[in-house]
UniProtKB/TrEMBL annotation:
It comes from the Eukaryota. Its main location: nucleus. It comes from Trichinella pseudospiralis (Parasitic roundworm). One of its GO terms (molecular function) is RNA endonuclease activity. InterPro entries: RNA3'-term_phos_cycl_insert (IPR013791), RNA3'_phos_cyclase_dom (IPR023797), RNA3'_phos_cyclase_dom_sf (IPR037136), RNA3'_term_phos_cyc (IPR000228), RNA3'_term_phos_cyc_type_2 (IPR016443), RNA3'P_cycl/enolpyr_Trfase_a/b (IPR013792), RPTC_insert (IPR036553). The keyword Secreted does not apply. The gene is Rcl1. Pfam families: RTC, RTC_insert. It is found in: Nucleus, Nucleolus. Residues 184-287 form the RNA 3'-terminal phosphate cyclase insert domain. This is RNA 3'-terminal phosphate cyclase-like protein.
Length: 382
């Protein structure tokens, strides 16, 4: 299929996937029938901000939106990166935009230095904390030189009024490394951060106590700390929450989070003890799913496998999420990469005694592919 041929899709679902893959492959894409029957049809304000963000980190990209807003034509340009500063509003959390930056960051011309303002926690997508603890370790596994890869929360901004600020920096990489990761190891420690903004720090401490009580039933190496923000560093909305991260003996991370209900949302006020307990239960569920990455990071794992050198990459994952399944289909359209997916049972061929081991979910899958040899031609050879 020719590089300049236009791919066409329908509907607003998976817009970010299509834009990311179009940018990396250089394939133009047309998306039609975007919310045609809604009261406010067409693209939304947060999608416009996404287009603006892509325009900031690329050169000569064009976005044509029909007068009704229901059709978008995107012709990607070259990735340039550099220093970017934008206000992303409060409709979607900053995680919505950060995911796109993580996909594209290693392949830009100049190292990314992006400062975004908006909602850091809440908003219906992975928080900035979750991306920092779950996605960045995955990126380091694929990048040969990840020095300078960092995500700093300058100001916390909770839902609904946001006013938080983050700084994302990422070095460029000429090529990704192939991976063959099939052993997740055993959980060896759990770390956590309870944050609070414009409220008493005692609520964060209560979150920690309940989460720690749940985790210590299974593990002793547990350490949590608080991140209390006030003044300009606390954003514009009061609230609290907690994020937990479990690390295995093989350096695999599983992450969970839970935050309080926003004020004036019509929901009951959140109880700190319930927040901590639910975050711990979500972490247990994530560990049970297993695999060699957090469930939210499945998409970036499969993308970096597909973009790797022309060598075989293998990766064991927990049950594939709906988002990852559609991402695999889109990669076949844009990159021509097809994955071999087979069920994975680590106890297959083991003794009867080993068969009694509790290894979590038995619906794990093994992903295998040959990379397309995608390289960052903007990075000079030494």
């Amino acid at each position: 299929m020719e590089k300049d041929s236009v791919l066409q899709y329908e509907g607003c679902n998976f817009l970010r996937q299509r834009l990311v893959l179009a940018t990396l492959s250089g394939r133009p894409v047309r998306i039609v029938n975007i919310r045609p029957d809604d009261v406010s049809p067409g693209v939304t304000d947060f999608e416009i901000k996404l287009f603006n963000l892509l325009s900031e980190i690329t050169n000569r990209s064009t976005v044509d939106i029909s007068p009704s807003g229901t059709t978008v034509f995107y012709k990607p340009g070259s990735l340039v990166g550099g220093k970017v500063e934008m206000d992303m509003g409060v409709i979607r959390g900053l995680g919505y935009y950060l995911e796109v930056l993580c996909f594209l960051a290693p392949f830009v011309k100049s190292p990314l230095n992006v400062r975004l303002r908006g909602v850091t926690n809440g908003g219906g997508e992975p928080s900035v904390d979750l991306i920092k603890h779950a996605w960045l370790p995955v990126m380091r596994r694929f990048m040969f030189d990840a020095e300078g890869l960092d995500l700093k929360i300058v100001k916390r901004g909770l839902n609904p009024n946001g006013n938080g600020e983050i700084l994302f920096t990422c070095p460029i990489s000429r090529q990704l490394r192939p991976v063959q990761i099939e052993n997740m190891g055993k959980v060896r420690k759990v770390r956590g951060v309870a944050y609070s903004c414009r409220i008493s720090p005692a609520l964060a401490n209560r979150c920690i106590e309940s989460a720690k009580a749940s985790v210590k039933h299974f593990l002793n190496d547990v350490y949590f700390h608080t991140d209390h923000r006030k003044g300009l560093e606390a954003g514009s909305s009061p609230g609290f929450g907690i994020i937990l991260s479990a690390e295995t003996t093989e350096g695999i991370y599983f992450v969970s989070e839970k935050h309080s209900n926003p004020p004036n949302s019509g929901l009951d006020p959140s109880v700190p003890e319930d927040i901590g307990t639910e975050a711990a239960e979500r972490l247990f569920s994530e560990i049970y799913r297993g695999g060699c990455c957090d469930a939210t990071a499945q998409t970036i794992v499969t993308l970096f496998m597909a973009l790797g050198p022309k060598d075989v990459s293998k990766f064991v994952s927990g049950p594939l999420s709906t988002c990852c399944v559609h991402f695999l289909r889109h990669m076949k359209d844009f990159l021509g990469v097809v994955f071999k997916i087979e069920s994975y049972d680590p106890l297959k061929g083991k003794s009867a005694e080993d068969q009694k081991l509790e290894i979590g979910c038995r619906d794990k899958v093994k992903l295998t592919c040959v990379g397309v040899g995608f390289g960052n031609l903007n990075k000079a050879l030494l």
